[in-house]
Amino acid sequence: MDETRETPVTTLGTAWTPATAVITREVLPGREGDYQQWSSRLLAAAARLPGYEGATLIGPPHGEPGRHLLILRFSDKTSLRRWVDSDERKSLTAEAAAFSRHVYEEPSSLETWFAIPGLGAVQPPPRWKMALATTPAAYVLILAILAVLSPVSDSWPRPASTLSSPCSWSRC
Fold first, then answer.
1. 155 secondary structure, DSSP code
2. 9-109 CATH
3. How far, rounded to the nearest angstrom, does the alpha carbon of residue 155 sit from its chain's CA centroid?
4. Is the pLDDT at 110 greater than 60, yes or no?
5. What are 95-108's pLDDT values in tens digits?
6. Residue 70: closest CA among 36, 125, 23
């Protein structure tokens, strides 16, 4: 496997390179109890390994019954790799197939908004470039909104129509 060099995040003068595993499972109807027991055993197994720092369990979101997220935090990538490669994790993952299915999701393009492991933080463009890119877009959007509101806002009271049109005081 290709080793990537990572720049550690410095927090209060200490180097810190955290690692997180997100496990998403869709639990079959009526098998919630099996999932609860399984997740307890999985957390206990992870907690026995050095570098384990904790976990967060997130129940099914509205509109997605049965979907559970389990977020495991480790102190570094080596500790996470130790967990991923462990026979106990492999056994527990195979066992979970009886009452749930693993949900794999491709990351969206939003991951470039955050630090990507191995690449460090993505540097934002200079402020002048952001202004140059956003000003025309905002201008066009405002023109479209004003074009829609102008026929309606003429009958509004003067303070309200002033907010919706730059020409309201001069009645352009």
1. T
2. 3.30.70.100
3. 45
4. no
5. 999 999 988 665 55
6. 23
